[in-house]
TrEMBL record:
Stored InterPro entries: CHP02678
Designated name of the protein: TIGR02678 family protein
Length: 315
């Protein structure tokens, strides 16, 4: 069997890297890029069938287009701290789109163009506005959406006259995922999330449920049962043995299913994943709090419902 169709231990490792990283650049990580490329067919088949994800293996990078089943507030860009950051980032993408690959531009030119692209007023003499742009440019540089040729963006935080020379790399053309229609034809987030689904047949409905369940398992810390008739959780219970066998065959995770919770765990701590609990004190505190809360609920000292939010023991 060719390595393209082989799902072996290296394919498991490649799958983890694709899930944990926005993309894998050949220039930065040639060994893992080659690992992914050599098992492209096997990985493509698995991600398409189980999660409905598209794997792109370009001559310069490999990227798994990850779309959450349910967007959560904590899924945002961790480096961003203000809604302005997201707006500026979108404006930066629009600015880059107008540039050619390998074309260079100055920070001052970008700042001037952002004033016309940004939906509100920008004042670069305002410290908070400059800090937002610094966060945006640092994040863009970390993904290699822009390359720093000369200068230091951190200096812009202290003086709006600071200058930086940037270059547009090929990767910037592949940051955004493609949609079947022009983005201006979508008016809500729900429409964007539904854009990948065009068939409402029973077969597609079952496939969408599988994709939704797998996405929640792989992209969230835990999948919680929302109600007694939660169809996704019923799917987990019905096919739990098959799901456990499939996940443990194709990844290094273990599938655990409880009365109200399902999750993926690891026996060994991974160096490249954010694991819980970790070595930080906040993990110890949260575990101790959860243990005490569980004891209080079991003893009846705390109630999780029925008494109403105004009750002194309500949680």
């Amino acid at each position: 069997m060719s390595s393209q169709n082989l799902y072996d231990e290296q394919a498991k490792e490649a799958a983890e890297w694709l899930l944990e990283n926005f993309w894998v650049l050949r220039e930065d990580d040639p060994d893992r890029y080659r690992m992914i490329r050599e098992r492209e067919q096997a990985l493509t088949l698995y991600f398409r069938e189980k999660l409905g994800y598209r794997l792109i293996v370009h001559r310069y990078f490999a990227k798994l287009e990850k779309i959450p089943a349910v967007p959560e507030t904590w899924m945002g860009i961790q480096e961003f701290t203000d809604p302005r950051d997201y707006a500026l980032f979108c404006c930066l993408l629009a600015f880059i789109e107008m540039k050619s690959v390998d074309e260079q531009f100055l920070l001052s030119d970008l700042c001037e163009e952002l004033k016309s692209l940004y939906p509100d007023e920008l004042d670069w003499t305002h410290y908070e506005h400059r800090k937002s742009l610094v966060r945006v440019m640092r994040f863009a540089a970390s993904l290699k959406l822009v390359l720093t040729v000369d200068g230091d963006i951190e200096q812009f935080r202290y003086a709006e006259t600071s200058e930086v020379l940037y270059e547009v790399p090929i990767y910037s053309r592949y940051f955004m995922r493609t949609y079947p229609k022009d983005l201006f034809q979508y008016s809500t987030l729900e429409e964007l999330l539904e854009a990948e689904h065009t068939d409402d047949s029973d077969e597609q409905t079952g496939m969408r449920r599988r994709h939704r369940v797998y996405r929640q398992l792989f992209l969230t810390p835990a999948m919680l049962r929302k109600s007694d008739d939660d169809v996704d959780f019923l799917y987990l219970r019905t096919y739990r043995n098959r799901i456990r066998e499939d996940i443990e065959k194709h990844t290094n995770y273990q599938f655990e299913l409880y009365r109200n919770t399902a999750m993926l765990t690891r026996m060994e701590r991974g160096l490249r994943q954010d694991m819980y609990p970790d070595q930080r004190a906040i993990s110890d505190i949260s575990l101790q709090f959860a243990e005490q809360l569980r004891a209080d609920v079991l003893s009846g000292r705390v109630t999780t419902g029925g008494a109403g939010p105004d009750h002194p023991q309500y949680v």
